[in-house]
Each structure stands twice: as structure tokens, then as C-alpha cells.
Write a structure and sequence with these properties.
single chain; about 500 residues; alpha/beta; Rossmann fold; Alpha-Beta Plaits; 4 domains; 6-stranded mixed sheet; 4-stranded parallel sheet; 18 strands
Length: about 500
């Protein structure tokens, strides 16, 4: 399988529109990890993403007769811009189908490149179905985002550049994985010339389509994917991409949202550039890999795949970066409801700076507090502090890894609802667009009373809601059936310890 792809990659036509991006050392990160970390700066491409390579290579290889019919793709971001720019360079029509949830800045970027934009559906799959239908109706060439040999070969030129710029003197290349086109192209080329170099993919824990497929030995379709790293939010990897990964990829590393946010900060501190969540995956993967492997002295490459970040998402990144870098911990604690108890609690914390403190007075009862504090030595320090507090007689629950606590409860601490009966708690996600919250409430309906509600826009394409709903025991089955009919992603959190301590009955 290698030989045909080697020729395709070497013949790839990408530099009419793309640039050869630098391979830069991340000095601060290298010192901290104890390995030499090199960043492949694909965030510096004309559209701020590697996607331009594959899109242009596909379009450049179309015959003049076929190209003149025009091209079409489905994408909410980087691939859309790549196709639009490539089509403009060849002076051919381009249609881009984007979900209606796509932020305006991304829609405008595609329009500015001269493409026709069709807004359809709430997610990529629906948009892709519409794009394929339009391709048939209008006789357009469909340009797949990843599962196409010419697209894969175009992305493979990243591997060509890495080897040329490093002289092959590297130990591993870390690559973000969505549909698999980038890692497939890099892996097949690098392994052909330097089989000893490890190719390590990195995926979010909540969008691990390649990890699950390699583990199962076949392509699997995820029921749902997290949307924070939207550039790799793919439910099913490409068929061709999976075959290449199965043969040439050494390992897939999974990282969580907090670790991605910390990696965005790491890249910023070394380059003063802000990459998108998917663009920071490789750095997050290197940090996780180095923490468990003997990486001292190794040369490790991270592919910074893109920098198309929504500005309003930076708030969420900043909030979570310290948690992801183990520079902050969040605890729930019970202290006596009496003067001076907070002071004594902080004295037990010692020199650790308190970053957050949430509390509500409740006469005659012990006080439940939600407290954040800074760390200088990572997770082991967090564990020692928790143990010290428990040894001092405090009841402590570590909330640092509790997603509901970090997304919602820390902003809602205010006491229990003592008179509420039959309350069930759910986290929901729905496409973020004007009127989406009202549509969500209408879908829930008026049959069951909403007894708790928290909604906070996190600067992403998906809105998140925490809702308490009163459901009588005899109506439980009907309510669950109703939830399934809504087609909203949800997680029941009624048994979550953060809910029981701060909000529940």
C-alpha cells in the first residue's frame, strides 16, 4: 500500500497556494518536559490550517473539463476555506454546504473567498447528505474532507517537510486525528523512509473514533462526539484513512478538554499564537505521553494543525487551562457554620492561594463550600492537600475531574431546595444558534415542571444546559421515552455528588 501513496505524495501539487511551514522549537515547553519539542506550524498557512493542502491537491488533479463543472464540499470550518481558496485559484465554481449552526465568522470567511454557501441542517452529517444530493443534481465534483487518496496525499506533504526540515533525526511525530486524512498521509510517507520514527495520533476523549476503530479492528461509528475540538469532531473515520492508520500508526493518545486548554496556553507562551482546540491536540498528546514514558532527551514533533479559533471561546479556554495543566484544584468541603471557620480552613490549606470560594449561609447547619486553590507541583500535590484537609477533620470531595461541577455547579452554588420532590437532573447539549434555547424549552414541554435550570454560553457551537425536572415515579418511563424523541444529547446527573452536595434535595 505504501508505494502508490509515496508517488502520490511526491507528485502532490500544494505549493501553488500553500506554503512550506516552519518547524520551530518550543523552548519553554521543552525545558519543562525535558525533551526537545518541535512545532510544525500549519497554523501559519494562508487559511490558518493544513486543510488547504489536501483540498487543493484534489482540485488541482481534476481535468479542465471536469473542473469547470465546479466543486462542492460539506464543512463547518477549515476544509470549507481550503476548497474555496483552491477553487478560486483554478477559477472554477465552488459550493460549500455548512450547518446552520456555523459561526458567522466562518461563513463570512468562505464567502470572502468567492464560494457559494448553502446553510443546511444542524450538524456535519446532515450538511454532508445535502452536499452529496447537490453534487448529483448540479453535476459537481464532491471534495471529501479526508477520505480521498488525493486529499490524503496532499496532507502527506506535511510529513515530507518534517523529514526534510529535521533530517529524520526525530523520535516521534504527534498528529491530531479527526477523519484520519492527515495522520494517514504523514504516517505512510514517514514510515516508508524512517520506520523507527513513531507516529502517534491524538484524539479528544469524547471524539475518539480512530482509537475505538483501531481497538475494535474495524471502523466504528460513535453515537455522539464532543464539540469542543470541533475540527476533529468526527463520528466515523475514513475507510482509506483507517487502512493506513491500521498499518502505520503506532498509538493513539486520548486527552480531555482541560488538557487541550492547557496545551493552547503552552503554544501561546512559546509562539504568541493562539491555536484552535484541534490545533493544540498534538501538544496535549506530547505532554501526556511524556508524563508516562521516558521521553527525556527525545526530539518530538507536534503538528499544530490550525488556528481558526472563535474569539469568544477564549474565555472557556482560560478558565480551564489551569485545571488541565494541574495548576489548580477544585474541592467541595464541609466546614462548621460558625465565625472563623473559613479562616481555619484556609490556614489548613497553608501557602496555597485560594482561587475560588463559593458558599451560602444556612442557619444551624454545616456549611458546604466550593473552593479552588492553586498548585505548583501538579496532581501529587493536590492529593497531599486533600489528605491533609481530611486529616484535619474536614469532609472533602475532589471536584477537579467532575465535568458537571466545572461546567455548571461552580457558578450555581447557592443552597439546596428542601421542598422539591422527585427532582431528576440532566445535562443537555443542543446546536447553538438564535432561538435555540427557546426551541429547547419548547421541546421539553410543559407536562413536567423544571425545578432547576442553568445555561451558560461557552463560546462554542453547542449550548449546554443543566436542568432539574420533577418527574413522578409513575411517569418515569414516559419521561425517558420523551427524552429519546427529542434527539438532544443528554446525560443524567441525578446521582452526581456535586448535585447532591450543593443543589439537590
Amino acid at each position: 500500500m505504501a508505494s502508490p501513496y509515496i508517488e502520490r505524495i511526491l507528485r502532490a501539487r500544494v505549493y501553488d497556494v500553500a506554503i512550506e511551514t516552519p518547524l520551530e522549537e518550543a523552548a519553554r515547553l521543552s525545558r519543562r518536559i525535558g525533551a526537545r519539542i518541535l512545532l510544525k506550524r500549519e497554523d501559519l498557512q494562508p487559511i490558518f490550517s493544513f486543510k488547504l493542502r489536501g483540498a487543493y491537491n484534489k482540485i488541482a488533479h481534476l481535468s479542465q473539463a471536469i473542473a469547470q463543472r465546479g466543486v462542492i464540499c460539506a464543512s463547518a470550518g477549515n476544509h470549507a476555506q481550503g476548497v474555496a481558496l483552491a477553487a478560486r485559484h483554478r477559477s472554477i465554481p465552488a459550493v460549500v454546504v455548512m450547518p446552520q449552526t456555523t459561526p458567522h465568522i466562518k461563513v463570512q470567511a468562505v464567502l470572502d473567498l468567492g464560494a457559494e454557501v448553502v446553510l443546511h441542517g444542524d450538524d456535519y452529517d446532515t450538511a454532508a447528505d445535502r452536499a452529496l444530493a447537490l453534487a448529483r443534481e448540479r453535476h459537481l465534483v464532491f471534495v471529501h474532507a479526508f477520505d480521498d487518496p488525493d486529499v490524503i496525499a496532499g496532507q502527506g506533504t506535511v510529513g515530507v517537510e518534517i523529514l526534510r526540515q529535521s533530517g529524520g533525526a526525530i523520535d516521534a511525530i504527534f498528529v491530531p486525528v479527526g477523519g484520519g486524512g492527515l495522520i494517514g498521509g504523514i504516517a505512510v510517507y514517514v514510515k516508508y523512509l524512517y520506520p523507527q520514527i513513531k507516529i502517534i495520533g491524538v484524539e479528544p476523549e469524547d471524539a475518539a473514533a480512530m482509537y475505538e476503530s483501531l481497538r475494535a479492528g474495524r471502523r466504528v461509528t460513535l453515537e455522539r462526539v464532543g464539540m469542543f475540538a470541533d475540527g476533529v469532531a468526527v463520528k466515523r473515520v475514513g475507510e482509506e484513512c483507517f487502512a493506513l492508520a491500521r498499518e502505520h500508526v503506532d498509538e493513539i493518545v486520548l486527552v480531555d478538554t482541560d488538557e487541550i486548554c492547557a496545551a493552547i496556553q503552552d503554544v501561546f507562551e512559546d509562539t504568541r499564537s493562539i491555536v484552535e482546540p484541534a490545533g493544540a491536540l498534538a501538544v496535549a498528546g506530547i505532554k501526556k505521553y511524556a508524563a508516562r514514558a521516558a521521553a527525556g532527551g527525545q526530539r518530538l514533533v507536534a503538528v499544530n494543525s490550525g488556528a481558526n479559533m472563535n474569539f469568544d471561546r477564549l474565555r472557556h479556554v482560560a478558565e480551564r487551562a489551569d485545571l488541565g495543566a494541574a495548576r489548580e484544584a477544585l474541592l467541595a468541603a464541609e466546614i462548621p457554620e460558625e465565625p472563623g471557620s473559613f479562616l481555619r480552613f484556609c490556614e489548613t490549606l497553608g501557602q496555597h492561594s485560594v482561587t475560588e470560594f463559593n458558599y451560602r449561609y444556612e442557619k444551624g447547619r454545616a456549611a458546604q463550600i466550593f473552593v479552588g486553590f492553586a498548585l505548583s507541583q501538579g496532581r501529587s500535590e493536590r492529593q497531599s492537600v486533600v489528605q491533609a484537609l481530611r486529616d484535619a477533620g474536614y469532609s472533602i470531595t475532589d471536584m477537579t475531574d467532575n465535568e458537571m461541577a466545572k461546567l455548571h455547579v461552580r457558578y450555581m452554588v447557592g443552597g439546596h431546595a428542601r421542598a422539591i420532590e422527585n427532582e431528576h437532573l440532566y445535562r443537555f447539549e443542543f446546536p447553538e444558534r438564535p432561538g435555540a434555547l427557546v426551541k429547547f424549552l419548547q421541546a421539553i414541554g410543559t407536562r413536567w415542571n423544571i425545578s432547576l435550570f442553568h445555561y451558560r454560553n461557552h463560546g462554542s457551537d453547542y449550548g449546554r444546559v443543566l436542568a432539574g425536572i420533577q418527574v413522578a415515579p409513575g411517569e418515569r418511563e414516559q419521561f425517558v421515552d420523551h427524552l429519546h424523541e427529542l434527539h438532544y444529547a443528554y446525560v443524567e446527573e441525578t446521582q452526581n455528588s456535586a448535585y447532591r452536595m450543593f443543589l439537590g434535595t
